[in-house]
Amino acid sequence: MSESPLITPRTLKGFRDYLPAAMLQREKVIATAQRVYRSYGFSPIDTPALEFEEILLGKGGEETDKQMYRFEDAGGRRVGMRFDLTVPLARFAAQHIADLGTPFKRYHIATVWRGENTSRGRYREFMQCDFDTIGTTAVAADIETGLVIHDLFHALGFDAIAIRVNNRQVLTGMLEKLGLADRATAILRALDKLGKIGREKVADEMMQVAGATASQADDVLRLSELKGSNHEVLAAVENLLDGNERGLAGAARLREVLGGMAAAGVPDERVKLDVAIARGLGYYTGVIFETFLDELPDIGSVCSGGRYDNLAELYTKQQLPGIGASLGLDRLLSAMEELGRVAKVATPAPVFIPFFDGARLHDYLRLARGLRSHGLGVEVYPEPKKLGQQLKYADRRGCKLAVILGSQEFEGAKCQVKVLATSTTHEVDLAAPGGGAWNAEVAAEKLAAKLAELLAAG
RNA sequence: GUGGCUAUAGCUCAGUUGGUUAGAGCGUCGGAUUGUGGUUCCGAAGGUCGAGGGUUCGAGCCCCUUUAGCCACCCCA
């Protein structure tokens, strides 16, 4: 053995290992997102983790520079790691739109990196699950974005959600009307904190940081504090925006989006017009979505998106408007964990076969393969240990069924199937029609049907 | 990035005003007449007290530095 000191095993701040139970959960959510996105015709793409620095620095400000992982590669090129999937999409679209044609619908599920501070559900390496429709300004694309969000959470088992919808045009119109258009960013940044710090402090910030008057701040807040049903709020918004073309157009668009989602079958209570949300200041120009879980609203938006006028303007002269949204996978998983919605399963194989009779290894292996060919996940224990220990192992990993086959069972061409959660056992006859000795293929055929039935039941 | 709190076994924690070989519960592993787990009983393994330095006769405990985590703020393209 080496005498050299051990290297402490550790991971970088904000970077994590995923143990099997956590990884299975991640993969499940990812698979669900893929399924929903694909069901709407969004196609998968991927782009490099590393891009030329100039591509990524294009639009951001100082914060971007600070948060982005940047370095010089071995060839002396300035490169950076992607910090979201939208900028790479812009570059990708500018480069390939001629081949892709419009409208272009893509989804992209991938890891991104930001060197920012960590907190609950926020890490330096995390995953985004984006879907976007580019090359069209049609309202149908706006509506469809909302539908995807809705269906995604439904598929994930969350029906108690609030998809908050707004339109930047409404806010912009209001600010124009108040003569605050030149300070929009500062005003909206303050407004976005409404739910968090309260009306007084928001008004203070608008006055101090953005130089608004008390009455201007009050007018902005009045807009965002309208109460009532979506339709009532919308009517009141239009009233307040009277005379401002941009704002009224934004309100009309919202009316279409809400109407479209309702017409497509989304229950009204899951969609909430919220004139205060103002995220994505840098590039959203139209409809905005933010999604909150009713059971855990404090964790923040778990799926955000919106419409942008010109995604790829830095990289091409071609106009590429679009709309999309992104599931915050890590934040959602954090929420699911807090809500106790994470199954404690550490194995993808629901069926467990103890290595019971030490002389029958080959029979176990053949039977397991036969079951797998019927689409079942099957694990065979590698050592002929005591049965109790093997069952304990299976239970701890979260296997659902144990197929118990000892010399007696081989003798009689049968087996016991034990449901581990309830401890109930079912005897299954595995003999060929007309009786006969043990036959792995016949046994697999008959057993697979029974196992599938039990798995479906439990 | 700023401020505060925390760091003792795999996990959750105890550890008296600094004083001998640092403890518990859970978990893990082994066993309780040899074909059935999650309950019980017995036993075992497992910690240079996050890391580095300092004060002291003596540091898990006090001081400094560092790393990581938690909370708040800033920010979130």
Proportion of beta-strand residues: 15-25%
How many discrete domains? 2
Oligomeric form? single chain
CATH class of the largest domain: Alpha Beta
CATH architecture of the largest domain: 2-Layer Sandwich
- Write down the overall mean pLDDT: 88
Low-confidence stretches: none
Radius of gyration from CA coordinates: 28 Å
Number of helices: 17
Structure, explained:
The chain has two domains: 20-338, BirA Bifunctional Protein, domain 2 (2-Layer Sandwich); 351-457, Rossmann fold (3-Layer(aba) Sandwich). It has an eight-stranded mixed beta sheet with strand order 1-5-6-11-10-9-7-8. A five-stranded mixed beta sheet has the order 13-12-14-15-16. The protein has helices at residues 20-39, 53-57, 62-67, 86-100, 139-155, 168-178, 184-191, 194-197, 199-208, 214-224, 230-240, 245-263, 329-338, 361-372, 387-397, 407-412, 440-457, and strands at residues 43-44, 50-52, 70-72, 78-81, 104-113, 125-134, 161-167, 271-273, 287-293, 303-308, 322-328, 351-353, 378-380, 401-404, 414-419, 424-429. It is elongated, with a radius of gyration of 28 Å. With 458 residues, it is of the alpha+beta class. It is built from 17 helices and 16 strands. The chain binds one RNA strand of 77 nucleotides through residues 8, 10, 13, 58-61, 63-64, 66-67, 83-84, 86-87, 114, 116-120, 122, 189, 279-283, 354, 356-357, 386-396, 402, 404, 406-408, 416, 418, 420-421, 423, 425.
